[in-house]
């Protein structure tokens, strides 16, 4: 690593990172202030494409909406991909204006994934100013569909597109330099829908209520034991239903996210969720009683009374980078050269897709500090960002192979 870093072109790249940190922060603010909710990443993507092009990358947008910038190596058959997601969890009308609070920048999405996008932008410029030549092609991409219900469609398309040419993937997500994500957490997401006859809150009282049915199911599932090992989790994230306070709702739905380090544990959680929701619906149907104004037997579960539907919203496969992977060794060499301490992490990121297919992949932070991700108080502090950028620069050059 020392030999690479001391190459005069690489030294120039590292210097460029120190000189351009103010510019990188300006680009981060510019990109963050373009709303980029899932499925609507095109405007932010266009801006990123412009910045990539100004750094001499060969740019294009693929049909999925990924913005791709290529820096050709001497051997076109091998590619190192660095990818940061363009999308945020925030709806289009969220105020994404960046405010300053001391050294902090505050705005929804400023860190996740403003920090990741900014680091790709800084990396593109450092590679350009360094004038390094590499053996493998370095591809920088802003991809779509990482958050929410995007179901990783952006990275899926990139991995499919580059196919067997992909030698390694680095997903850059959020701030910090203190971790290397080598394991992808599996997740499954569902929308659980319950429909019923609906009615008037007074005259139809006793008819089964989809909201109550869902509530019963949630309470039942909440008592299921969630193991610490393999670490697993669940979240009921969105609940909707009903039309007015004095109407028995005709439908209700809840969105659920299940995660686990282990695919078979995830299967067990899914079965438990299905059982709990069905039991909740049955319990509600059985406790329904026709009131004086209602007619009908609600104790039978059928389409006219209560109906339960599960729709999958997406699934992320699990995967793990082997401990003896050359990719991991390279990142560790970079860290020891830079005097950076990092720990191995597990997470659910774009790296899940290559990892699940046996393609070497990690997720890294873009440097700097951040917090409050997925909240309106999200913040990012660019102090120390240079370390994150140097880490990515040296890793990219080392993986791609420095050429004379
Ligand atoms: Zn993210």
Structural class: alpha+beta
Mean pLDDT equals 94
Biggest sheet overview = 6 strands, mixed
Rg computed from alpha carbons, rounded to a whole number of angstroms: 25 Å
The set of bound ligands, ions and cofactors reads:
zinc ion
Total of domains: 2
Number of extended strands: 21
**CATH class membership of the largest domain:** Alpha Beta
Q: What is the name of the CATH architecture of the largest domain?
A: 3-Layer(aba) Sandwich
Spatial separation of the terminal alpha carbons: 16 Å
CATH homologous superfamily descriptor of the largest domain: Zn peptidases
The low-confidence runs, each spanning 5 or more residues with pLDDT under 50, are 299-304
Proportion of strand residues: 25-35%
Query: What sort of overall outline do the alpha carbons produce when their principal axes are compared?
Result: elongated
The number of helical elements comes to 11
- Look up the CATH topology of the largest domain: Aminopeptidase
Question: How would you describe the overall organization of this protein?
Answer:
- This protein is an alpha+beta fold and 404 residues long.
- It folds into 2 domains: 2-185 and 319-403, Zn peptidases (Aminopeptidase, 3-Layer(aba) Sandwich), CATH 3.40.630.10; 189-315, Alpha-Beta Plaits.
- Helices cover 35% and strands 28% of the residues.
- It has 11 helices and 21 strands.
- The protein has helices at 2-6, 8-19, 21-32, 42-54, 114-130, 153-162, 210-222, 263-287, 326-338, 352-356, 385-400, and strands at 58-61, 67-71, 75-85, 99-101, 104-106, 133-134, 136-143, 166-172, 179-184, 186-195, 199-200, 232-241, 247-248, 251-260, 307-316, 319-320, 343-347, 361-364, 369-371, 379-381, 402-403.
- The strands form 6 sheets. It has a 6-stranded mixed β-sheet, sandwiched between helices. A 4-stranded antiparallel β-sheet has the order 4-5-20-19, with no helix packed on it.
- Helix 7 (210-222) crosses helix 8 (263-287) and helix 9 (326-338) crosses helix 11.
- The radius of gyration is 25 Å and the shape is elongated.
- The two termini are 16 Å apart.
- The model is unreliable at 299-304 (pLDDT under 50).
- Zinc ion binds next to loops.
């Amino acid at each position: 690593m020392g030999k690479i870093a001391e190459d005069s072109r690489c030294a120039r790249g590292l210097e460029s990172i120190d000189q351009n940190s103010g510019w990188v922060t300006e680009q981060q603010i510019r990109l963050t202030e373009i709303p980029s909710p899932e499925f609507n990443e095109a405007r932010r993507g266009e801006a990123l494409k412009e910045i990539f092009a100004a750094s001499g990358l060969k740019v294009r947008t693929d049909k999925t909406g990924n913005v791709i910038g290529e820096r050709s190596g001497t051997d076109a058959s091998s590619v190192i991909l660095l990818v940061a997601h363009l999308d945020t969890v925030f709806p289009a009308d969220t105020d994404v204006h960046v405010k300053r609070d001391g050294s902090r920048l505050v705005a929804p999405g400023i860190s996740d994934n403003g920090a990741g996008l900014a680091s790709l932008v800084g990396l593109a410029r450092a590679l350009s100013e360094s004038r390094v030549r590499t053996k493998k092609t370095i591809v920088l991409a802003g991809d779509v569909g990482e958050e929410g219900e995007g179901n990783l469609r952006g990275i899926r398309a990139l991995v499919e597109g580059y196919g067997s040419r992909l030698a390694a993937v680095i997903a850059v997500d959020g701030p910090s330099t203190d971790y290397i994500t080598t394991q992808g957490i599996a997740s499954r997401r569902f929308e659980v829908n319950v429909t019923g006859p609906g009615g008037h809150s007074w005259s139809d009282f006793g008819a089964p209520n989809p909201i109550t049915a869902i509530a019963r199911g949630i309470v039942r599932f909440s008592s299921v034991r969630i193991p610490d090992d393999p670490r697993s989790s669940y979240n009921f994230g969105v609940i909707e239903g009903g039309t007015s306070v004095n109407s028995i709702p005709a439908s209700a739905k809840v969105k659920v996210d299940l995660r686990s380090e282990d695919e078979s544990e995830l299967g067990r959680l899914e079965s438990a969720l299905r059982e709990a929701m069905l039991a909740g619906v049955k319990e509600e149907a059985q406790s329904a009683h026709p009131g004086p104004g209602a007619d009908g037997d609600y104790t039978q579960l059928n389409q006219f009374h209560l109906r339960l539907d599960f729709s999958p919203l997406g699934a992320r496969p699990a995967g793990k980078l082997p401990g003896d992977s050359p990719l991991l060794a390279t990142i560790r060499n970079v860290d020891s050269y830079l005097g950076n301490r990092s720990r191995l992490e597990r997470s659910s990121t774009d790296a899940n897709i290559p990892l699940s297919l046996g393609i070497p992949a990690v997720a890294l932070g873009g440097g700097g500090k951040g917090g409050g991700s997925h909240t309106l108080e999200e913040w990012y502090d660019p102090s120390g960002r240079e370390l994150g950028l140097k880490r990515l620069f040296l890793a990219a050059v080392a993986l791609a192979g420095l050429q004379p």
